[in-house]
Amino acid sequence: MGKIDTNKKQKRDSLLDAAFRLFMKNGFYKTSIADIVAKAGVAKGTFYLYFTDKDDIRNHLISHKANQVFRAAYRALLKENIESFEDQVIFIIDHILNQFCEDKSLVLFLSKHLSWGFFKNALTAPGEDEELTIFDIYQRLLARSSRTFRDPEVMIFMILELVSGTSYHAILYNQPMSIEEFKPYLYRTVRNILREEAVLEE
Questions:
Q1: Across-strand partners of 5?
Q2: Which residue among 4, 102, 135, 177 is buried most deeply as judged by most CB within 10 Å?
Q3: Whether residue 117 sits in one domain with residue 59
Q4: For residue 193, what are the domain limits?
């Protein structure tokens, strides 16, 4: 990446970071584009080089943050010697939940906005094409698996909804129990989904 591209990426990342901090502090509707550029330390015109409006930066921010946590989990997985697809999925979920526990703002932001559409059609910026998206990671794990599944997209949709829907209160409010107490229940259910959806080899 050349110096110009690096500067563009830094400005874009600065805008995303500023938007995230302001959305979490003041809320989406109470944050203006002027607030974002002021916090990022860039001119207002710079904002429109990367994003069309406030909704657009929020959508890119959701994708940016979600991809970050999945990539971190995937990089950690590559350092482990885990052969089973089932165990790989559990490892990634566990790593992501641990990231959420360390930074609860991610839970607040992503659980409200992350949807199947963002999972399937992750937004990337120019120069980020070499970065793996969430869907890319899932496809790689599937390709390396010795198992075949009836409908892999429906399967991961169910798992995503299960994990995001049930872990929110456990992480933020220890309800109905702490996330560490809840994990065995969650992982047992995820394993059951994976086993139910697996096609038995003749």
A1: none
A2: 135
A3: yes
A4: 53-197
Split into its structural domains, the chain has a count of 2
pLDDT tens digits, 45-99 = 999 999 999 999 998 888 888 888 889 999 999 999 999 999 999 999 999 999 9
pLDDT digits (tens, 9 = 90+) for 1-58: 455 556 778 888 899 999 999 999 999 899 999 999 999 999 999 999 999 999 999 9
CA 17 to chain centre: 15
Rounded distance between C-alpha atoms, residue 54 and residue 64, angstroms: 15
Q: Is 1 among the domain residues?
A: yes
The H or E element containing residue 62 is: helix 54-78
Q: Has residue 156 been placed in a domain?
A: yes
Cα→Cα distances 159→34, 152, 184, Å: 38, 11, 15
Backbone angles phi, psi at 126, to 5 degrees: -55, 135
| Nearest alpha carbon to residue 38 among 25, 19, 23, 20 | 19
Q: Are residues 101 and 182 in the same domain?
A: yes
